[in-house]
């Protein structure tokens, strides 16, 4: 039936958009992972360079210490002492740099782990949402199929309906009710109002407001998909 086509098209469009979004997010995640790997390689290269520099300084300090022991002049000892002080300060500075780099790397590792954990939670939530969406679509399809079969059956009893194009309403019309004039048409418009409840308007001929209120109260009750009840009551 024609009124199911917009819903099917809407579901298909949503699925396509969701698939494109998922692929785009995966590409972004891959790029972030590659960028992070490159950053780790660069940071490790800097740390390795600083470690080599520290080793060179320590070796030079050892050489200076030997020279200090073998020096016999006051001037020579003063020069060596000054050089040792410079090397010690330089060594301390390099060690601080190495510690800082390692701390930054460790902090980044923790952030990446936190992000990975959050992404994992998001994927689980997305999978759960996808499952719920699929269940909702299957339930909606079942409801539409049931409604369609019911309407086809009622057509044999003089029921017909058309989509009004306004407020997504359906106009139900009946014949075969008036024994004097079986072709006489009785109709009403059925829709969901702004309060997300079923409503009935434009009854031809008019139906008592109290009768309509009773029908709507039952229809909007626990079983909101009992269209057969609606048709029976309105007939």
Write structural notes for this entry.
The chain is α+β, with helices and mostly antiparallel strands and 235 residues long. It is 71% helix and 10% strand. The chain has helices at 5-70, 74-155, 209-219, 227-234, and strands spanning 159-163, 170-174, 186-192, 198-204. Helix 1 packs antiparallel against helix 2. The radius of gyration is 40 Å and the shape is rod-shaped. Residues 166-235 form the Chromosome segregation protein Spc25 C-terminal domain.
Which helices and strands appear, and what pairs or packs with what?
Layout: H1 5-70, H2 74-155, E1 159-163, E2 170-174, E3 186-192, E4 198-204, H3 209-219, H4 227-234
Antiparallel strand pairs: 1-2, 2-3, 3-4
Rg from Cα: 40 Å
Largest β sheet strand count, sense and barrel closure: 4 strands, antiparallel
The proportion of strand residues reads 5-15%
Broad structural category: alpha+beta
How many separate domains make up the residues?
2
Order of helices and strands: HHEEEEHH
Number of strands: 4
- Low-pLDDT residue spans: none
Average of the residue pLDDT scores: 71
Family: Belongs to the SPC25 family.
Domain Chromosome segregation protein Spc25 C-terminal: 166-235
InterPro entries: Spc25 (IPR045143), Spc25_C (IPR013255)
Subunit structure: Component of the NDC80 complex.
């Amino acid at each position: 039936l024609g009124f199911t086509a917009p819903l099917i098209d809407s579901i298909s469009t949503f699925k396509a958009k969701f698939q494109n979004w998922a692929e785009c997010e995966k590409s972004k995640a891959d790029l972030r992972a590659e960028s992070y790997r490159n950053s780790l390689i660069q940071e490790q290269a800097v740390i390795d360079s600083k470690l080599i520099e520290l080793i060179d300084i320590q070796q030079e300090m050892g050489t200076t210490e030997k020279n200090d022991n073998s020096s016999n002049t006051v001037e020579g000892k003063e020069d060596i002492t000054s050089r040792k002080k410079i090397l010690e300060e330089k060594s301390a500075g390099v060690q601080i740099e190495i510690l800082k780099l390692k701390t930054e790397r460790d902090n980044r590792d923790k952030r990446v782990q936190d992000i990975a954990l959050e992404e994992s939670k998001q994927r689980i939530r997305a999978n759960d949402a996808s499952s719920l969406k699929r269940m909702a679509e299957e339930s909606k399809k079942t409801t539409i199929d049931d409604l369609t079969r019911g309407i086809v059956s009622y057509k044999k009893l003089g029921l017909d309906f058309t989509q009004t194009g306004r407020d997504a309403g359906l106009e139900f019309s009946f014949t075969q009710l008036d024994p004097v004039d079986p072709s006489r048409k009785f109709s009403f418009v059925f829709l969901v109002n702004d309060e997300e409840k079923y409503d009935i308007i434009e009854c031809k001929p008019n139906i008592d407001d109290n009768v309509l209120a009773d029908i709507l109260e039952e229809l909007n009750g626990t079983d909101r998909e009992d269209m057969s009840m609606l048709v029976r009551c309105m007939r």
